[in-house]
Amino acid sequence: xxxxxxxxxxxxxxxxxxxxxxxxxxxxxxxxxxxxxxxxxxxxxxxxxxxxxxxxxxxxxxxxxxxxxxxxxxxxxxxxxxxxxxxxxxxxxxxxxxxxxxxxxxxxxxxxxx
Length: 114
Known about the structure:
Strand content: under 5%
Structural class: mainly alpha
Distance between the termini: 51 Å
Largest sheet: none
Low-confidence stretches: none
């Protein structure tokens, strides 16, 4: 079944526009409601609110939730499975490669067979 890529692209773009408008408006309203009265800051425009929102996502690691719950545990489990399946020579070659980039690398504590 062939998908309608143009229709999907339009839907995604429409969703992004609505999300940016909604979050931008929320930041605008909250800022203009709280900041001038609490701290004496000036009110901001909609585009300044969108810029502030984008800046906060960059600085505070936005989009972390995009991988879903438990992503870190799945990644860690997958890496440990790969480590368990490596031969001792492959493990040492991996350690040397990481040492060359990052310095000293500790050996995993779980039963790695070494």
